[in-house]
Every structure is written in structure tokens, then in C-alpha cells.
Design a protein that fits this description.
The structure is a homodimer. The first copy, chain A, is an alpha/beta fold. Chain A folds into two domains: about 240 residues, P-loop containing nucleotide triphosphate hydrolases (Rossmann fold, 3-Layer(aba) Sandwich); about 240 residues, Rossmann fold (3-Layer(aba) Sandwich), CATH 3.40.50. The first copy, chain A, is about 50% helix and about 10% strand. The two termini of chain A are about 40 Å apart. At the A-B interface, helix 1, helix 2, strand 2, helix 12 and strand 7 of A face helix 1, helix 2, strand 2, helix 12 and strand 7 of B.
């Protein structure tokens, strides 16, 4: 792509009127974006010395600073290294109506990590998949992503670096490394170009800015941004996804097809499994102490463990989580209860609140209800349109795949009880003063939709039981059996994983 | 205090029934705490090898893991060092009905920082003030703070360290440092004892646990915690602050008396100040470029800058912030718009959402509305009882003092307009389509309470204009004058500060 870019020069006087007009227009557009509740991400990548910083300053100069955030992307710090590599992008997502402007992005992150040997070629390719997946997921959620690459020629870069080094005030910004890179222009060119091509998708196309001349670049950026924002507002009004103009042919992108493992329907589960008190006590002791040891090894090997709990109301999730948690060193896990999203959560992609809740590697993150609410309660209760919720099967598989690639071991428990058992437990809760807070009208209402929920659960288990993150259906009519099954599942798998790594 | 502690031994069999009873009771108490919406903090400090980790595990063994978090406190990491030292405690605060259990705390942090020379004696004393202030602020907000110190004798410590070192499995946990510290027991004893005494307050008294014998310690901890929680629930029901039993005489604590600078009432401000367009353009250019340079120096010297904006509706805060922000390198500041608190914010101390929003040192944090809502909108609109809001004058001065000690330069702008000018602007907003979103019925309602607000503002300015964080009233009838005044105020002060440091 880069070789097609023509550099040219624009006189400041010729551009002045148009620039002022667009800057003024951008103020109104920012208000329109706020009114239309569109979250906007603008990434500014490009060559060293291409002028990213000053172009950002010009872009936002007239915008209301309450509507945007500017974040520089640098080499990941120690905290960031303990999370999946995309974590720092997910956690920075803007809310509806807000602009996030990134100085450098996941693009530069990927190219540079590869160039400097932090990742190998395979990982480089996988990261490109991650990037495309990320951008597609955001676009599907209504995010507007404007990707700008500031391109300068080799001569221009040489001139700029020398000028910086010659100036008393700016020379501290230039290192030997910059001079060395000048000589590697051709090599870097190829890497940039290849990566640009591989991430030039129909849903998040690149816009390459000829940046040898600063005024030309500024005009081009302003035009691209104002145009994109207008298109997004139009699309939003029409209720369709926004399509940005393609400067270059985009790649054929296909999401990964996940291989699924065979699963059973809930109706086919044998619900009669149980344990005697004696067996329960013996096995509880055995698996709890085994898990404590395994946690220690995971901590030392920095293996992240994610445990996701879903199940029927009154299924016994709480007690099950308790037996798991109380095996563990309390400094090494956290339980995340998931309720209705807060306003700041509802304003972002639904996976945001799970990304932001991930503990460091070596730690256990235990979710009490999860991202699977997206395909159960949300469509059934009408919080999310069915077609949108259906996209989550893929999105969730992608999410869990990325966690797996980070090194995470993922457990997903569906705590299953039958309808009679639920009735017994609801009644018991109503009749026990200390348990009355646990039963509400909503529980009874949900119960009326049992069949609808059962269908949704069957579908969820079928479509998201990947090889790397399969569901475990836990027979829960007998709480003791259920607790041991969950504990044993975690122990057996961690035993394997810790032996391998 | 420590020399008064008698170590004794309890047979496991003798304690078993009582322990089981208390563990069961704690389950119910945790539910009661949740129902009563009391936030609980339990800190576990003590000697090395005193058994903090295993006592925490026993304490929470039967609790519902969704109701508590356990956080270990270690040497501050790179991220934490860029914030005020109490920042990592503030940001971890539990919400109403939740338990936070800290393995190590601000107590150990203070003692160790002093012992290992990270802070000098003066700073050590100031930190003790910070600790007492922090605990008093939390208690006043309804937090229950249970502070436990696990005490073991020199012989017992020696025995434990040797036993750990002799065991193949645990010997990695013992370093030369631990052996060296064994010899320094007396010295450390004095430091612990002194710091315990100085932080043994009526609102957050210490409980020293004789921990030579693990069963005795466990019993003592369980009794202390269950008793404290019961007292807190009782107090909450009666609507009074909880008072915990004092094991030792507490110190006489007096909050700092802040020296205030002389201020004017709003009615005495000359509101006729203005600038011509020409003066405005010249001065805007001058101060914006000066501020850009000053920001650079602040960044290099790691000076945090906090800018707090308050003012009448339609006072011109937005435009004023914009002129300030657009002077700055966008990667070095963030604007924080403050609206009504989200549920997770409302569940915590009102200062929590400001502590969590602080940018790193070297950066500007610009607040569009601030913690001063506590003494204006909250009591006037009835969100906070007047007596509780009145405590905020002290709390806010303390907060700003701590920011100042971190190194922050604090600017507080009250953008002032008169009632006629507000009317003109409201009407203009109503009559300009692109500005209509900026005017709501609420603005008109607030306007009816002008006199009440003016009294509150006068009082706020009078009581929180400390020498280190004085208010600047900005005459805002002329927006141009107001913008230059704010810019000039920031520049002049930063000029001084950067020259000194």
C-alpha cells in the first residue's frame, strides 16, 4: 500500500480556510457523536518523526476536552505484561459518545514487538488475527474506528531526524537508535506495508496519510476524520453499521471457525448422581488440599486460571464457589460477582467489564455469572436484540481463545438442577428466615421461563464448547456431588497443565 | 503496648466448639453486614512469621467469597510510586456490605518504609498523621475498621524461622534477611510499639493478638472480629457511629487546624473586568505557549498538577477548560467530567471517586466539577445530611494537603457570573439550536436556589482556602477575561514552583 502514496505540498494560506471550517465542523460533529452515542476510536500510527504528536494536538485543538481522551501507547509496563496483550486496549475503550485517540496502537505494538524480537513470526500472525478480531468485534458493537498511518519518505525522515538532533531544545529526543533505524528504512517499510495490508479490512480500513508536508497531512487527517464521523452519524440514524471508504482493496477476512466438542442436552443428563456424607468429607479434604498445592504451582509458573460459574437460580453456585475458594490461598484469587451493568459498563462493549476484571497471571479469577449472560438473560429479557446476541457465540469463543493464548486455563461450570429441585429450594428459602433475602419475585418470574432458558442453555453449551474451553455440566441436585465434581474437574485439568508447562 | 501482652496456650480440643460456633456466626454476621450496608476493613499486621496468611485463611474459611476481597500489601510497585502513598489504600476501599481484608497495611508500610530508610523521621511522623486522618475519615463515613496486630515473642520467632528453614518445602521462604532481623528483634519491637501507640485511636483502636500459640490467636481473632461486627450492626441500627472496645488507652487525637487565607464574598467581587478581542488574542497566545513549556518541565520534574473547576451553570467552565487543555500536550493531561456517582461510587466514601481519578505525577488532572459537590449540591439537594456535609470542609482540606505533600500543585477555580448574565446565557442557549442540549429544566430549577447556592459558595471558599490550595475566584461575565485569568494563574504559580524544585 505505502508505495502508492503520493507526497505533495500544500501552502498554508491555501489550506487555512478549509482547515478552520473543518475544525469548527468537528466541534459540531463531536456534539452529534455525543447525541448519537457513538463511541469513536482514532488511532494514529506512522513512521518515527512523522509528526503524530503534533497532528493529534491539531486534531483536538477545538474539541471539547470533556469528550475525548488521548492515550500514548508505549512498551508494555510490568503490570501490563501480566495481562493478555490486548488487555490494555480493551480497558481503554471509550464509552458511547466519547472519543479515544491513541498515539500509537495495537498496530505499532504488533509490528514493533515482532521487529525487536519480543515475539516470533507465529505469534506475530496470531496477533494480526487478534487485531482483526478486535476491530470486527468493536465495529459490530457500533464503534467507529478510524485508523490513520502517517507516511513519510526516507529522505524526509532523514531530514527530520537530523533537524531534531541539530536543535538544542529537541536533541534529547533523538537517540543512536533513531539514526540506526534511518538505515533500516527499507526493511521497516516492508514490515509496515505487510502489516498494513493484513489489517486493512472492510470493517476497519486504513487511511494512509502523506505526511512529508505537515499542512497536507493536517488537511488529510481533518477530512478523513470529519468524513468518517459524518458517515457514522448517518449510519446510526439509519440503524445500519457504518462503512468507511476504502483507500486500498481490503483483505478477505474470515473469522475463525472453532472446532466444537460433542455435548449433551440438559434433558439427557443423569440427575441422580450423589455422594454420601462420608464420601463427601473424604473427597472434599482430598481435592481441597490438592487444589491448594496446584494453586501454588500455577502461581510460580504464572498460569492464569479463570473459573466461570453459571447455573439455574438456587442451583447452588454460591456454595460451590465457596468450596473452591476456600481451598485457595486468599491472596491468589478473587471472586467477581456479576450483576446488571453499571452505566459506565453499559456504555461500552459488553465484554469490557470482563476484560477489566481479569486478575494477573498466576492468579485465579472466579466469575459468579459471566459473559454468557449475553446469550441467556439479555435476549430472553429483551435487553439485547436476538440477532445481536446471536453474534456472541463467535465473540465469546474468540474471547476465550485469546485468554487461552495468554496462557489461561478456563473452566466453565453449568450447575444444573431439575425443575422440581428448584421448586423445593425456592420453598425452603421462603420458609427459612435467614435465607429469605436469597429469594425474590424475580426468581419466580424467571422460573416461568424455564423452557425458554433451557433451550438457550442447550444452545450455549453446544456452540461454545470449544476444545480449549469446554463446558462442564455439573449435576447439582445433590450439592455435595456438585461441589466435588467442580473441584475434581479443576484439579485434574490443572494437574495436566502444570505437568506440561 | 506490646510488653503488656501475655502469651498463653489453648488446647485445640478446648477451642473447637467455640471456634465452630463463631465461624458459623460469622456467616450470619456477613449477611447482616450486607443487609446493613456496612463496609468493613480488617487489617492484619504483625511480626514476620507471626502467621498472618494462615490466620486470614481461617478467618474467611466459611464466609461467602462474594462478600470479601483479600489484598496483600507489598513494597509499592512502579505504578504505585507515581501516586500519593495512600492512593493504593483508597483505591482498594470496599463498598457497602463488603469486607476488605488486608495482609499487611498502611501501618506496616509506614514502619517498614521508615526502618529501611525509604522515608525520614519527619515523613514517618507525617505518615502517621495521614494514617490517623484516613481512619478517622473512614470511620466518620460509617466504615468499620478492625486492626489486628499478631504479636510473637523473640524466642517464638526464632523457633519459627528455624523450623521454616529446616523444612525442605518451606525453606525457600526464608532469606538471610530474616535471620538478620531475628537479631534486631528489640529494635523492631520499639518501632512497632511506638507506631502502634501513635495510631491507637478512639475511632480505630488496635487489637494486639497473642500469637505464640496458633489456636489462641485464632480464637482471639474470631472473637474480636465477630464482636466488632456485632457492635457495628447495633450502632448502625441505632444510627450512631460504632465504638470498638479499647484494649489499651488511646491517644488524644486532634485533627489539624488549617490556616486559611483571607477571602472575599462573591457579592464583593468586581464583575466588570473585561478584555478587548485584541488583548485576549495576544494574551491567549502568550500564556498558552508558556503553559506548554511549563507542562514539559512539570513532566520532567514529575510534578503533578491538579486543576479543579467549579462555577455557576453557564459560567463558561467548558470553554475555560478548553483553552487550558488545548495549551497542553494531549498525552500529558486528562479532563475528568464529574456527574452523579455510579452505584459502585455511591457505595464508597465520597472521596473515593476522586482518589481513583488521579493521573500519574508529571501529569495534569483537570476536574470539571469536583469533590466540592459535597458541600454544595449534595446538602442543598438533600443527597447528604447537612451535618455530614459540614464535615467535608475538614476532610477536603486534609485531602488537598495530602495531594500537596505528594508534590501536587492544586488550582481551584470558581468561575463566577452574576445572576443577570446567567439569565442572558440561559436564554441564548434556548434560542440557539446547536446549544439547546446544554440547557435543561434542572438548570432553571437550580437558578431558583441562587441565594442558597451563593451562601454555600461563600462558605466553601472561606473554609477551604488553605495556604497550599487557595481558591481563585474568576470573574466570568467576560469569558475572555476569565480564560486569561485562569491561564495566567496556572502559569504564574507553575513558574514559581518549577523554579524552586
Amino acid at each position: 500500500m505505502l508505495e502508492m502514496i503520493k507526497q505533495h505540498k500544500t501552502k498554508k494560506s491555501e489550506a487555512a480556510d478549509e482547515l478552520t471550517a473543518m475544525q469548527t465542523e468537528l466541534i459540531d460533529l463531536a456534539n452529534a457523536v455525543k447525541a448519537a452515542k457513538i463511541p469513536v476510536i482514532i488511532t494514529i500510527d506512522g513512521w518515527a518523526s512523522a509528526g503524530k504528536g503534533s497532528q493529534i494536538a491539531k486534531l483536538i485543538k477545538y474539541m471539547d476536552p470533556r469528550f475525548y481522551k488521548v492515550k500514548p501507547i508505549r512498551i508494555p509496563n510490568e503490570q501490563e505484561k501480566r495481562k493478555p496483550w490486548m488487555h490494555r486496549y480493551w480497558t481503554k475503550l471509550p464509552g458511547k459518545g466519547e472519543f479515544l485517540i491513541l498515539d500509537g496502537s495495537w498496530f505499532a505494538d504488533t509490528v514493533k514487538s515482532y521487529r525487536y524480537g519480543a515475539i516470533d513470526k507465529d505469534e506475530y500472525k496470531r496477533r494480526i488475527d487478534d487485531v482483526n478480531t478486535f476491530e470486527r468485534q468493536l465495529r459490530d458493537d457500533g464503534y467507529l474506528i478510524i485508523k490513520l498511518f502517517l507516511h513519510i519518505t526516507q529522505d524526509e525522515q532523514k531530514r527530520r531526524v537530523k533537524a531534531l538532533a541539530a536543535d538544542e531544545i529537541t536533541k534529547w529526543r533523538v537517540s543512536q537508535h533513531d539514526f540506526d533505524n534511518l538505515k533500516r528504512y527499507d526493511k521497516i517499510f516492508k514490515k509496515y506495508d505487510k502489516t498494513l495490508t493484513m489489517t486493512n479490512t472492510e470493517f476497519a480500513p486504513w487511511h494512509i496519510v502523506p505526511a512529508n508536508d505537515r499542512v497536507t497531512a493536517q488537511l488529510d487527517i481533518m477530512r478523513t476524520v470529519t468524513n468518517a464521523v459524518k458517515l457514522a452519524c448517518d449510519a446510526k440514524e439509519k440503524g445500519i453499521l457504518c462503512k468507511l471508504p476504502e483507500q486500498f482493496p481490503t483483505i478477505k477476512y474470515k473469522p475463525e471457525k472453532f472446532k466444537l466438542v460433542k455435548t449433551k442436552k440438559l434433558a439427557d443428563i443423569d440427575m441422580n448422581k450423589q455422594l454420601t456424607d462420608e464420601e463427601y468429607r473424604r473427597l472434599l479434604k482430598k481435592y481441597q488440599s490438592r487444589l491448594f498445592e496446584l494453586q501454588n504451582i500455577c502461581y510460580q509458573k504464572k498460569i492464569p486460571v479463570i473459573v466461570a460459574y453459571e447455573g439455574w437460580d438456587a442451583g447452588g453456585k454460591g456454595g460451590n464457589i465457596k468450596r473452591l475458594a476456600s481451598s485457595l490461598d486468599p491472596r491468589g484469587y478473587e471472586v467477581k460477582p456479576i450483576a446488571a451493568p453499571e452505566p459506565s459498563e453499559a456504555a461500552r462493549h459488553y465484554l469490557w467489564r470482563f476484560w477489566t476484571r481479569l486478575e494477573n497471571d498466576g492468579h485465579f479469577t472466579i466469575f459468579d455469572r459471566t459473559w454468557y449472560g449475553r446469550v441467556m438473560v439479555e435476549p430472553i429479557e429483551g435487553f439485547t436484540p436476538k440477532e445481536r446476541a446471536d453474534m456472541a457465540y463467535l465473540e465469546i469463543n474468540e474471547f476465550e481463545k485469546q485468554l487461552t493464548r495468554w496462557g489461561a486455563v478456563i473452566f466453565k461450570f453449568w450447575i444444573n438442577i431439575d425443575k422440581d429441585e428448584q421448586y423445593r429450594r425456592f420453598k425452603e428459602r421462603e420458609n427459612t428466615p435467614s435465607k429469605q433475602w436469597k429469594i425474590t419475585d424475580e426468581d419466580w418470574r424467571n422460573r416461568e421461563k424455564w423452557d425458554e432458558y433451557e433451550k438457550a442453555v442447550d444452545r450455549m453449551i453446544k456452540l461454545t464448547s470449544t476444545e480449549f474451553a469446554p463446558w462442564t455440566v455439573v449435576e447439582g441436585n445433590d450439592k455435595k456431588y456438585a461441589r466435588i465434581k467442580a473441584l475434581k474437574t479443576v484439579c485434574d485439568r490443572l494437574e495436566e497443565v502444570t505437568a506440561e508447562r
